[in-house]
Design brief:
By secondary structure, the chain is α/β, with parallel strands linked by helices. The protein is 57% helix and 6% strand. Helix 12 links the parallel strand 4 and strand 5. Helix 20 packs antiparallel against helix 21.
């Protein structure tokens, strides 16, 4: 006999050794809720509340299922006369409706829903999905060994009937099909180019269109970038949310971010696109990690990769599955003629595709027609064929039936992929809104640069083209060396010009020489210090500097927590001591070498300079770091982020930090130097210092400090170092990188997925990477 929910919950709590108060606190629900569920006073436990309780109790999968089944029995969800089950809608339930916590997260979820809807609406228009109409996407049931037991999918109690669900439907009915699944877990399988991504976009837009305020927000995540061995699923979801929506880095309930609160409380419905793009050795742990949760989700994958992962571990728990089917000849006959211009001459109703479609219908078993028909069964290849032949004047699709050029389906697919870039970069007269005429780009140069980007993504093992990681494909020591070199050059030249100007004004050649040595010391030590620090913080760990989710606001706006300010103060003090001591020591040694001072005296002078500058820089760096933290506030949650929008936001943040840091740090260092001279003179002996020295060290330190910090430890600085200097200098990217990426997006070669770019399709990325490697093998100079 099944155990009642109240009895089972009380028993599991006792087994965990927890009081009602402890369980309520850990689960984030009220004590009255726990007490009412255990006494039976509350007869309607929400599924999300049950899930939070299960998480807090640390239940094993079998125990979680038992507790959820008891909750379903108690709420009366069971078999209907027609044999179906009511949808156990997983509603977000952090706090009680009407509570401040619940209302806060509901409002944030609403803002997130607006941003997601606007983003994917624009993306669907950019991909011309509705021109002239969306290609049909259909599906069929998958083999039983790829899905869980129907009783688990239906969330049935023990003894319930468990026949299969009717999951038939069309693209515009995907939300209705999903709602038929009580578990809220659906796997969509389909071979490459079969329309999985189109389906996920349509699912998100249609669900958001009918979304009630209390329902979850569907968000598309490219799961191919997830490493389950490095980060948990929920933490990864929160990290992806904050990347694409920086405003969600704002503090949320319990000290976590708003993104983490939305994920943990069930407000986000993950739409996981591209399970097959996860590295082969990580698919099994990824599936195991997904099975460790009961989060509702929609997952897409190619069939072979998903079947292999299932064979190694198990099916996705409680998940139904469907497989997308091929396009038919009737689909092609409806679509392709409407995607091109009418023919000229007597037959004005005909098009260039008519002879091809006639041949496919009349001679289906011929080698030419069989090969082409096989290729044109996926939306990807049909859209590529349209781009190469319908949208490109002078190209006759009848040539696709030439068996001398195309020996089989593989050659045809390579032909479409290879010529798509050429077609995309053909000269066009049209104007882009607000940008004037579209600049002509040589297709071969574009193919080369796109190939470099594709190889870069292959090295990183991700489909996400993140502007802040464009340098991450380089060897780690090269990254550290280039960062150190650029920072040292910038600091040395800036300080050299400023310091030498004082010698020119004073009309003193000796002063010019001394100040040149000072600038060289600053540049040399900056390069050594930043290169070493950058190596241990980022390069050695093979990670990139993440983009900032904050902005600097002098007036108004949220302020950072006190702990953040105090920690920044400590970091600044320690950094100032080490950097100041190193700079002072190097400067002292170079100065002594220039004056040919003996070693013992040089060492004594260098140590004194190190101690002096260590104390002075600490007084400037610590308060400057704390002030910067104090004036930071999260970006606006409602801001719709795209790659270049995030880049511009980070550039504005860096500019604000520059305007804040230079005067603040310079004033603090200069003032600190003047204040410290008397105690330092008492400790170290007489020091040759005056007001001019304080002003000089303040100005040069302010400029040098912000330049070195910006280049090495900010995402925008790393973008400048690699994407605006090193990669164009070595020929791997064009000099106008931003214009090139945006132009590739406008031409349909790239797509936007939140704050990152992706290639239009994984097949296109693989093709460009493969051909680029072949080109480099034939020509080592690239």
């Amino acid at each position: 006999m099944a155990i009642e929910f109240s009895t089972l919950l009380r028993q599991l709590r006792h087994n965990a050794g927890m009081t009602q108060e402890a369980l309520a606190e850990r689960a984030g629900v009220g004590v009255r809720t726990v007490r009412g569920l255990e006494t039976g006073e509350r007869a309607d436990p929400r599924v999300t509340t049950v899930r939070l309780l299960a998480d807090a109790l640390g239940l094993r999968p079998a125990e979680r299922e038992e507790l959820l089944a008891a909750a379903v029995r108690r709420t009366g969800h069971g078999n209907q006369p027609d044999g179906s089950t009511d949808r156990v809608e997983v509603e977000p339930a952090t706090g009680q409706p009407g509570s401040a916590l619940y209302e806060t997260l509901a409002e944030v979820a609403g803002l997130l829903a607006q941003a997601v809807a606007a983003r994917w609406q624009r993306e669907e228009e950019q991909r011309q999905v509705h021109d002239p109409y969306p290609l049909p996407v259909r599906w069929r049931p998958v083999p039983e060994e790829l899905i869980d037991h129907w009783a688990n999918i239906r969330r049935l109690p023990a003894g319930g009937t468990h026949g299969p669900l009717d999951l038939s439907g069309r693209l515009d009915e995907i939300v209705g099909v999903y709602r038929r699944i009580p578990s809220g877990r659906l796997v969509v399988l389909g071979r490459s180019g079969s329309g999985k991504t189109i389906l996920t976009v349509r699912f998100v837009l249609d669900r958001l269109k009918s979304r009630a305020r209390t329902e979850t927000v569907p968000v598309i995540f490219s799961i191919g970038s997830w490493d389950p061995s490095a980060i948990t699923f929920r933490d990864w979801l929160a990290a992806q949310l904050t990347r694409d929506h920086p405003g969600l880095t704002a503090p949320g309930p319990g000290g976590s971010t708003l993104a983490a609160a939305l994920v943990e409380s069930g407000w986000v419905l993950p739409v996981l696109d591209g399970f097959d793009e996860i590295a082969g050795g990580l698919r099994r742990p990824a599936l195991e990690a997904l099975n460790a949760t009961i989060l509702p989700l929609l997952l897409t994958s190619r069939p072979a990769e998903y079947a292999a992962a299932v064979a190694e571990t198990d099916v996705l728990t409680s998940a139904a599955a469907v497989e997308l089917t091929d396009l038919t000849l009737d689909d092609l006959a409806d679509y392709l003629p409407r995607s091109t211009r009418k023919a000229r001459g007597a037959d004005r109703a005909g098009t260039a595709w008519d002879p091809v479609l006639t041949a496919l219908r009349e001679r289906p078993e011929s080698r030419a027609c069989a090969g082409l028909a096989t290729v044109l069964t996926t939306p990807l290849m049909v859209t590529l064929a349209r781009a190469v032949y319908s949208d490109t004047p002078g190209h006759d699709p009848a040539s696709l039936l030439d068996t001398r050029r195309f020996d089989g389906p593989e050659q045809l697919e390579e032909h479409f992929l290879d010529n798509f870039v050429t077609a995309a970069y053909r000269p066009r007269p049209e104007h882009l809104p607000g940008s004037g005429p579209r600049a002509d780009v040589d297709p071969e140069r574009a193919r080369y640069w796109l190939g470099c980007l594709a190889v870069h993504l292959a090295r990183l093992g991700t489909p996400d083209l993140e502007w802040w990681r464009l340098g991450s494909g380089l060897q780690r020591r090269i990254r550290a060396l280039v960062t150190a070199l650029v920072a040292a050059t910038a600091v040395g030249l800036t300080m050299g010009l400023l310091l030498c100007a004082t010698g020119v004004v004073a009309d003193s050649w000796h002063t010019v020489v001394i100040q040149s040595v000072n600038a060289a010391a600053a540049g040399l030590f900056t390069g050594l210090a930043l290169g070493t620090t950058y190596w241990f913080m980022f390069a050695a760990k093979d990670i990139a500097v993440p983009p900032s989710g904050s902005r600097v606001r002098v007036f108004g706006g949220a302020r950072s927590a006190g702990r953040s300010v105090s920690s920044r103060l400590v970091i600044g003090l320690v950094s100032g001591v080490f950097y100041g001591f190193g700079y002072g020591f190097v400067w002292g040694m170079l100065h002594c070498v220039l004056l040919r001072t003996g070693f013992p005296e040089s060492l004594n002078i260098s140590l004194k300079d190190g101690i002096l500058f260590g104390a002075v820089f600490a007084l400037g760096t610590g308060p400057a770091f704390a002030l910067q933290a104090l004036l930071e506030s999260p970006l606006d949650i409602r801001s719709a982020v795209n790659p270049m929008g995030l880049l511009r936001a980070n550039r504005r943040t860096i500019a604000a930090q520059f305007l804040l840091w230079v005067p603040a740090f310079g004033l603090l260092v200069g003032t600190g130097a003047s204040v410290m001279m008397r105690p330092m003179s008492a400790l170290l002996g007489p020091i040759n210092w005056n007001l001019s020295s304080s002003v000089q060290v303040g100005v040069t330190s302010g400029l040098g400090g912000v330049l070195s910090y910006g280049f090495a430890f900010t995402a925008y600085g790393q973008w400048v170092v690699f994407s605006r200097i090193w990669l164009p200098l070595t020929g791997r990217l064009p000099w106008p990188v931003v214009a090139f990426l945006e132009d590739a997006y406008q031409r349909g070669v790239l797509r936007q997925a939140g704050a990152v770019y992706q290639f239009r399709h994984a097949r296109l990325q693989d093709h460009l990477a493969r051909t680029h490697r072949a080109l480099r093998e034939r020509s080592p100079r690239g």
